[in-house]
Amino acid sequence: MKYNRITIALLFCFAFTFLLSAQTENLQTKVIDGKEFYIYKVKPSEGFYILSHKFGISQEEIIRYNPAAKNGLKKGQLLMIPTNKGVNKQDSEPEIESTFEHTIVRGESLYSISKTYKVPIRSIIALNPGSERGIKAGATLKIPQRYQKPEKQSIPLVQKDTQTAMNTADSEVVEDSSNGTSNEYVYHTIADGETLFSISKRYDVDIETILKLNPGISPTHMKKGSVIRITPDTKELNVTIEPKQLYTEYKVRKKETLYSISKKFGTTVEEIKKCNPNIKQIKQDDIINIPAGIEYNTVTAENPITSAEINNIYNKLYKSDKKGVINVAVILPFMLRQSSPDTKACLYTEYYQGFLMAVDSLKRQGASINVYAYDSEESESTVRRILSDPILKEMDLIIAPENDSHIKLIADFGLANDINVVNTFSLKNEEVSHNAKVFQTNIPHSYLYAEAADRFIRYLGNRKVVFLSHTPEEPDKRDFIGGLKEELNRAHIAYHEIKFGNELNLLDQDSILADASGIVFVPTSAKKKVLSLIVAPIESLKEKRADLDIALFGYPEWLTQVPEYLNEFYKLNTYLYSRFYANPFEEDTKTFHKRFLYWYNKDMINASPQYALLGFDTGIYFLSAIREHGKNFASQDIRPSIDRIQTDFSFQRVNNWSGFINKSFYFINFTPNFTIRKIRE
């Protein structure tokens, strides 16, 4: 029974192929850019569905080769239908190289690069022997190209149950030939002198498509060595079909009329008159033209696009869109249904309160801002319900919660509706790597560690570097310490390591301290216990060796220990790195504390960072940017914000199609002069 069904299905396919051949054998064909097309005139009542069945192609393909058909088909409309016969494959398909080059950015890893291009790490290592031992910023890696041209989605030719039978039969004899995931894009490394026009010609893709797929580039910003993604062989044809009437000459015989001649040649009197516009009556021996069919000629527009036209395309895609009123949605788990919300929910409420203070500050300057607050309730269904509210599509900005699945829902919504989405709370969420509308305000660990190591060398690299390793426990800063040691090696800066147990003695380290004028101690752990073990011995060394310029290097976690160790930090010339820091002695910080107390009749929760300040700084930055440039402010040259109270902003794209990460962080120096320097760059 099963084989009978298969036989019927195959017969159906053969019959369809025969009918298609019969329908197309009388159609004229033309070859354009190595592709062969039928010239087809649309018949009454024919639409995309009928033509898709007739020619076995999708509606998208028809529109691609006939852009004028976007608004529908009309009777008599001339279409170019691909025959799917390769005339010259080498000419018709763009050449795609098997690899491309990626320039390593500080903070990237093989893992992050493999995720960006959707290739296995082992494939990158195979092309770049030795990369498994470490990669260096500024160096290049060869990346395998894994592009696979999408299969054409034509209308099914057989009934569903018959198709199922065929698939079942095929599965019995055909093994899965998949050898890994493929990629829907070709990745291209921009070469010196390349332009949008030249890349468009090479890959047969529209310039507008390139700009849409790569919001990180512009007509004036085509950086050599950067990578863009492309969908090759998708450019719409700019072809005009010009019909030409063919005819043969005929000598009129005795007693013949236009009617008798039309019957003789299988045409109409009207068609004969069209071929002979100057003849009203005929007589014997007159020479007249008889219709002999229509020949279709095609004219391809090959004029290069001008720079002004390219700029117009870009400006249309990323227009300023300043509309006067700013709409912002804050979607956070306030947990309002709980009788006593937990500390985390209270912190989110405090963030929102700080955000409202930013709104108030800008309104006093004349800004018009509408704020819509929603309780996400830590529920995916609640987030979906919130996003279904029609008003959400009117937003310029959405503040997203910490939950990764909720961020994805909101980020997808933002991308679909051209809305900026701010991820303030999640460090590990990966939406920013491929969604151009996402702004991640926290610099990820890998970038933070790399940037902090670079800044360490510039500020402290002239000192002798000594790592202090507490042996009874594993170092919790293994990744940072490993990266710092790599950078020290590359900079040819020697370092030493002192291992200690429950007691650290620095006075008997003559071999390390000899000939040293300056020294910086770097513990390999940020734990409070380790801090308590190293402070006193370093102070003792400072008292014994007044000739030594001593500094201590520490971690963001130490900021919570400032009230207890402030004097020690001053005395030991301590440097910390952190994404956040509000100097309690600065006037801006004091003023904000007073304003918050006045507004809400309470003090801020003691946390690092302080959420009210985080909400205030975030609100001031984004709302000011939208007010000045519109919601597409990211397409402008975004100026870094280096005057915030607790958090500065310096956004950079991860790649040309990604969102933005905030690469700003502080070096905080507690100086022996009893001042606190917040070092910004």
UniProtKB/TrEMBL annotation:
<feature type="domain" description="LysM">
    <location>
        <begin position="100"/>
        <end position="143"/>
    </location>
</feature>
<feature type="signal peptide">
    <location>
        <begin position="1"/>
        <end position="22"/>
    </location>
</feature>
<feature type="domain" description="LysM">
    <location>
        <begin position="186"/>
        <end position="230"/>
    </location>
</feature>
<dbReference type="Pfam" id="PF01476">
    <property type="entry name" value="LysM"/>
</dbReference>
<feature type="domain" description="LysM">
    <location>
        <begin position="248"/>
        <end position="298"/>
    </location>
</feature>
<dbReference type="InterPro" id="IPR036779">
    <property type="entry name" value="LysM_dom_sf"/>
</dbReference>
<keyword id="KW-0732">Signal</keyword>
<dbReference type="InterPro" id="IPR018392">
    <property type="entry name" value="LysM"/>
</dbReference>
<dbReference type="InterPro" id="IPR028082">
    <property type="entry name" value="Peripla_BP_I"/>
</dbReference>
<dbReference type="GO" id="GO:0008932">
    <property type="term" value="F:lytic endotransglycosylase activity"/>
</dbReference>
<protein>
    <recommendedName>
        <fullName>LysM domain-containing protein</fullName>
    </recommendedName>
</protein>
